[in-house]
Amino acid sequence: MGQHWANLLICAGTGCVACGALKVKAALEEEIKKHNLQDEIKIVLTGCNGFCAKGPLMIVYPDGIFYQILTPQNIPLLVEEHLLKGQPVKDLMYTPPGEKEPIPLMNDIPFFSHQVLLALRNRGLIDAESIDEYIARDGYLGVAKALFEMTPKEIIQTVKDSGLRGRGGAGFPTGLKWEFCAKAKGDIKYILCNGDEGDPGAFMDRSILEADPHAVLEGMIIGAKAIGAHKGYIYVRAEYPLAVERLGIAIDQATKYGLLGKDILGSGFDFEIEIYQGAGAFVCGEETALMISIEGRRGMPRPRPPFPAHKGLWQKPSVLNNVETFANIPQIILNGAKWYANFGTEKSKGTKVFALTGAVNNIGLIEVPMGIPLRKIIYDIGGGIQDRRKFKAVQIGGPSGGCIPESLLDIPVDFESITQTGAIMGSGGMVVMDETTCMVGIAKFFLEFTQDESCGKCPPCRVGTKVMLDILDNLTSGEGKEGDIERLEELAMTIRETALCGLGNTAPNPVLTTIKYFRDEYEAHIKEKRCPSRSCTPLLKFEVNIEMCKKCGKCVKVCPVDAIAWEKKQPAQINKEKCIYCKTCLRTCQFYAIE
Amino acid sequence: MSKLTVNDLKKIKEDYQSIFTLRGGSYRAKVTIHMGTCGIAAGARKVMNTLMNEITKRNIKDTIVTISGCAGLCSHEPMATIELTEMGPVKYVDLNEEKIIKILEQHVLSGKIIKEYTLIE
């Protein structure tokens, strides 16, 4: 029998698996067998394809046709029509919001066509558990070049020239970091990968580790040669079981092929990698805490200097880079610094991976060139705001970041511009919020997170964030006082200046940026005891505004406790004794008539 | 599994070339077999299988094969359309296993259209 004429690439990232991708795969296998096509068509499980909102999804090659939201029930029709008779099934394709005609080809869909894939170049394209498929996509050729054709100095120079900056958040130049460590004295050095991703709504590292684990291993081997390390650790949360499993498979395969271990590719260079599973403490993403955690102690930051490049893991010179940073390295080595520096802006080179989530239509994992306007990400790639609501803010950088308002949507996405707004680039969380989100509430949400995750070592973070949180609690429950905003600002500045580590230093950012751009909302909470986005329950009256009520009766139908009375052509009335304040009516009313 | 050398890496890459040509890579030739009910009844699947076997046997890596629905000329099935990057599409009609091998040899591999098998207006 000949080779397969078609490949079906099913996304098997955590998101799609949770939506039933494996059941779809089983149904496909059964149906394909039924039609005796098993020798003609190959099914491949890939890592995250990126378009998580539409999972489970599948791409049919050779044509590159994109199928979305598949269920096992769709499969018999799909196999018969497309794979047997050559007629792609329109009903299962993607149709942009508000349009009628579907877009058959993946590369024509705006979500994909505006992206530039460097770190994610293999996403949704290779079997994440096959080292051969990775190698077939130029895999480990970067290692071959680094080990046989380049000196450590040349590797570092290439990475420096490429302009690559750390993708974990702060954006420190990677080549410079490597140079510090390479120059540090010591015979034992370590190279570490930070996969302790913990920002709410962020899943960049997980997706890379699940989709293309070998790219991270390859980046680490190249880094090891550059700084002279022979042992590496990947710190990844235990909550990422699939990422841990695929990393384990990748390390085993690479070791069997002699790409890890002694005498890699016969070059004489030795390097091995161990996975260290973290227990899920957010603070362990901080470099010193991460190293202390690997040493087996409770993960808490320590003051710097000494910097890890001189005294890191077990007091030895160490380099810690983010997952995405490492995933960029092989291509930089293979294609050269100039090639990489072609992407991006003057000071921020290359691309950035974001986890786009929240109120946009197209939730998913994206990679865009640095310098792309924020508006393009949200409207062209993200497909705009769900349910035709209005955009309000986008939160970038997770709990360390901030909220950027509509007026700044045309700024380019690069390290400098984002920092100027008061947010930070961060590791790539991008949460879009619509008009129904209360900005005081969102500041409180992020502060609750950092407060909870504060390790407690330094008082500014331990006590300061708690005091700030108490004030926000008061605001959202109608007990705000004059002067609260100023108190928040003062506390924020003090914490920022005095906290021990990045977690504390940046914890006030969500509060500061929301005060900066949405001060009127804070004031409304304090002076009028009113929540403009009608989101803080204690500030709501749960009354129908008779002037605005269109008497449609929609609220009556959705009320779970029958607390709303209504007769045709009459405004609705809420019975407060029965009402459980669930806000279902509020969300349903299109005329904002419930206050 | 033995330890690899740099040449082994390149060999693996070569072995997989046809798979990644298929998965959205650039190809030199594309063969579309028309697989409507009429095509299948006339033996299109046999033509397809023969073609795939031949492609494997000859280790051709820059050609992809796909299927499409009925082309509208049911009486001339099985049919195939050949597209080379340097040439417009050419439709072949009334195919059988023998003809598709000849088309592969002469048109797909050497760029010579076999006029007597093509669709004559």
Descriptive account of the structure:
The complex is a heterodimer of chains A (595) and B (121). Chain A has helices spanning 14-18, 21-34, 75-84, 110-113, 131-136, 141-149, 152-162, 174-183, 204-211, 213-227, 241-256, 287-294, 323-335, 337-341, 374-381, 415-421, 439-453, 459-476, 484-498, 502-506, 509-527, 554-558, 584-588, and strands at 6-11, 41-46, 58-61, 65-67, 190-195, 231-237, 272-278, 318-322, 351-358, 364-369, 391-396, 402-405, 429-434, 564-565, 573-574. Chain A is α/β, with parallel strands linked by helices and 595 residues long. Chain A has five domains: 6-107, Glutaredoxin; 131-341, Rossmann fold (3-Layer(aba) Sandwich), CATH 3.40.50; 351-434, Ubiquitin-like (UB roll), CATH 3.10.20; 439-527, NADH-ubiquinone oxidoreductase 51kDa subunit, iron-sulphur binding domain (de novo design (two linked rop proteins), Up-down Bundle); 540-595, 2-Layer Sandwich (Alpha-Beta Plaits), CATH 3.30.70.20. In chain A, the strands form four sheets. A five-stranded mixed β-sheet of chain A has the order 10-9-13-11-12. The model of chain A has no long low-confidence stretch (mean pLDDT 94). Chain B is an alpha+beta fold. Chain B has one domain: Glutaredoxin, CATH 3.40.30. Chain B has a four-stranded mixed β-sheet with strand order 2-1-3-4. In chain B, a hairpin with a 5-residue loop joins strand 3 (80-84) and strand 4 (90-92). The longest helix of chain B has 14 residues, at 44-57. The radius of gyration of chain B is 16 Å and the shape is elongated. The mean pLDDT of chain B is 90. The A-B interface holds A 1-7, 9, 40, 61-64, 83-87, 107, 125, 132-133, 135-141, 144, 148, 256-259, 263, 265-266 and B 1-6, 9-10, 12-13, 15-20, 22-24, 27, 30, 32-37, 40, 48-49, 51-57, 64-69.
